[in-house]
Amino acid sequence: MESTIEVPQEHEQIFYMVADLLDNEKREQSLLELSKRRERVPDLAIILWYSFGTIASLLNEIVSVYPLLSPPKLKSNQSDRVCNALALLQYVASHKNTRLLFLNAHIPLFLYPFLNTVTKSRPFESLRLTSLGVIGALVKVDGDTEVINFLLSTEIIPLCLRIMETGSELSKTVATFIIQKILYDDIGLTYICATPARFYAVSSVLSNMVQQLVSQPSQRLLKHVIRCYLRLTDNPRARDALKTCLPEAFKLDSFVAFLKDDVTTSRWLQQLLDTVMNNSTANNLALNTGPGLNSNFGLKQDIRGK
């Protein structure tokens, strides 16, 4: 007697929807339904990756709107459709069995034109935020040096830094999270602290964000900013430099009241201050540096963009 394998109805519907991605007339509805149901099918990433033509169809959705980015002509319905494709790619990027395949195919590079936009309308902001979500899914796993190495070989750091300065609060939060995860990898920390230009580019953006957070507080965003600063102190040259370029708002207890109910972030901030100020006290016995980066970086001026 032959045995049969029963496929759950939900999975059977998913297979049909994935197949519909190859049909131009059915693709939009299929993208919408798959993006809604992706959490209910644990192996959807594997199905998407290994189904014939599926990834190519998703990439086609992405590149089809490139001509609408500059000059900005993207409409909401077009943005929503691409965001649904990006949501499926995020699922592929986050799955342990497809993450490195996704990375080795250099698929993140297809998202960079969206991160490079500056138009603040909702269709563009949605594309930036969803694209950041895909990159965030890649870096979420701790200790994945292959992901960090790949990102450092691309323009992800300057792209994130610009969004951290000019994006919406949510986009700033995700972009700062990505920089934080890069910093918390030893290779990422070494890369950012390897030259004065890289260190100053990151530290000056973080400083500007702190000043903005004084008047426009965001607990989630502040948490990521503090963690970035705290990680920088693990590098001796960066720690020494921070004694002259750490934001005054931290030293003036500007966030004490705001963080009174967040014990963990308050502890991180106090640890940051203790580390930098203790380092400053010790080094002041031997060094007398002016504003900006100290002599360990060989620079005392604003070098961002040079």
Describe the overall structure:
The chain contains 17 helices and no strands. By secondary structure, the protein is mainly α. It has two domains: about 10-150, Leucine-rich Repeat Variant (Alpha Horseshoe), CATH 1.25.10; about 195-305, Leucine-rich Repeat Variant. The longest helix is centred in the last third of the chain and has 21 residues, at about 265-285. The radius of gyration is 22 Å and the shape is elongated. Mean pLDDT is about 90; it is low at about 1-5, about 280-295 and about 300-305.
Topology:
Layout: H1 9-20, H2 27-37, H3 44-50, H4 54-63, H5 76-94, H6 99-104, H7 112-115, H8 122-139, H9 145-152, H10 156-166, H11 169-183, H12 186-192, H13 196-215, H14 219-232, H15 236-245, H16 248-251, H17 263-283
Helix pairs in contact: 1-2, 2-5, 3-5, 4-5, 5-8, 8-11, 10-11, 10-13, 11-14, 13-14, 14-17, 15-17
Ends distance: 75 Å
How would you spell out the order of helices and strands? HHHHHHHHHHHHHHHHH
Count of extended strands: 0
Chain-averaged pLDDT:
89
Largest sheet: none
Helix content: 55-70%
CATH topology heading of the largest domain: Leucine-rich Repeat Variant
Query: What is the 3D form?
Result: elongated
